[in-house]
What we know:
Shape: globular
Order of helices and strands: HHHHHHH
Radius of gyration: 18 Å
Number of strands: 0
Mean pLDDT: 90
Strand content: under 5%
Distance between the termini: 43 Å
Structural class: mainly alpha
Amino acid sequence: MRERFTTEMKEAMKAGDKRRLGTIRLIQAALKDKDIEARGAGKGQTTEDEILALLQKMIKQRQESIAMYEQGGRPELAQQEKEEAEVIATFLPKQMDEAETKAAIEAAVAETGAASMKDMGKVVGLLRGKYAGRMDFGKASGLVKDMLPKG
């Protein structure tokens, strides 16, 4: 994945695509910070799953900024954030659709033996382990709540 960032950055430079180039540089800076943090904690280099989680976090930050800019009447800044989010999303694997997400949640509920809302953490934890980068966990959490019996 790291090589892909470098390759895409070179292509963006050649194409003169300033938004893509700037966004890829932001990704690489965030990844470098994550690597430094991991080294400080005595871990090795950031894993692929951690990189996917980082990219999802960056997209979520952009989505929050878009909402704030739109409320504040700054459509040009909202557009910039949208473009950055789109570039970041190109590095994520294909996202699961709602039917695939529901099927994965049902399997996770069965696998963990979740019987109530108390078990929601187990279910979401299992999903994060298996589907990092492919599932929107904000939506998935709501679906898990709907599927688990209250009590």
